[in-house]
Hints:
The longest helix is centred in the middle third of the chain and has 17 residues, at about 60-75. The chain has three helices and six strands, in the order ααββαββββ. Strands 1-2-4-5-6-3 form a six-stranded antiparallel sheet. The chain is an alpha+beta fold.
Amino acid sequence: MEQEQTSPAVQKRVQDSLDLQGLMSHLGARITHIGPGRVHIVLPARPEVTQQHGYIHAGATSAIADSAGGYAALTLFDEDSEVLTVEYKINLLAPAAGHHLEAIGTVLKPGRTLTVCQLEVYGVQADGAKVPVANGRQSLIRVDRPAE
C-alpha cells in the first residue's frame, strides 16, 4: 500500500527542521515518511540508545514519538509557522526491542492554534514483523516562525 506524500516543499521544510535537532541526530533517528498529517521516524537499535536491560530506552522511544507527532502537525501548517509540544502522554506497552523502532505521528485534530496527534511506536524485527511498544497522545501549539 502506497502512502500519500506531501509536496516537495513541505518535505524539505520538515527534513530541514529535523536536521537542526541535535537530539535526533545524536540518537541516529531519521524520517522515512512525510505525508499530510502523518510522519514516520525510525531509530536503529544500537547500544548507545539502550537501558540497563538492553532494551531501547523509554527516553529515546518517547523522543522519536514526540518528534513524529510534531512533524505530522507541521505538515499541515503554513510555511511561516513552527510547532512546539504543549504536552504528551506515552504508555509503554512492551519492552522496546527489535532491529529498529518506528514512530508514527498522526494528526487527529488539526487546529489554528492547538493540534492533537496520536503517537505510535513499534519494535520492528529484522523480518519486518512489528510489535507495538508505545502509544500516546500529544497536544501541539502553532507558533510564528522567528524572524531571521
